Amino acid sequence: MPAIQDIPETVFQDTVTKAVQEVFSTMMGRPAVPVASIRGTPPDSVELEHPHVVGTVGFIGVINGLIYLYLSVPFAQECAGHLLGMSPEELAEAGDEVVNDAIGEITNMTVGTFKNQLSDRGFPCRLTIPSILRGSRFSIEPISSATRRIYRFDIGGHTLTADLLMQTGE
Asked: How many structural domains compose the chain?
């Protein structure tokens, strides 16, 4: 089995892009347009100045890793409201747990679509359960043996960051 470094970057870029585009088009009715970078942000880091909701799901198999989806709190609330058919007032009354659950599900669908594409390309794996982080001014530091790829998307004027961390598995 090839090492992560031997797999062309386009494999990961294409699978992440297709996964984000499929889920946000289907579930949110919005296109996800890849963006090159955010001014002043290095391409290999994620800077959080404002509160975010971060969903993560892992995958285990020939390739092991995690995908983190970073959404600003207003964008996460908008996604949760759309997904659940709730008004902003209903969502505020329901609380952060409802938003967390919705973002967990969106992350699970996105990473599931990514995993299916990896499997179709000869890299079978299975998923872990979703987790949610909330906060600002924090960063994810990968272990030194992990390969990191960061992809950003514009979705209706909001930025979604997909942070892919992986290493060769089984």
From this structure: 1
Judged by DSSP in three states, 8 sits in coil
According to the model, what pLDDT value does residue 9 have? Answer: 84
DSSP H helical segments within the chain, as ranges? 9-28, 73-84, 88-94, 96-120
CATH number for the domain that contains residue 86: 3.40.1550.10
CB within 8 Å of 65: residues ≥ 6 apart: 58, 59, 146, 164, 165, 166, 167
Nearest to 110 by CA among 133, 97, 127: 127
What letter would DSSP give residue 144?
Answer: T
**What pTM was estimated for this model as a whole?**
0.90
Give the span between the Cα atoms of 57 and 40, in whole angstroms. Answer: 28
Do 52 and 100 touch, CB atoms closer than 8 A?
no
Residue range 101-148, pLDDT digits in tens: 999 999 999 999 999 999 998 889 999 999 999 988 777 777 778 888
Residues 6+ apart with CB under 8 A from 76: 52, 53, 99, 102, 103
Domain extent at residue 81:
4-168
Q: What integer pLDDT is reported at residue 39 of this predicted model? A: 47
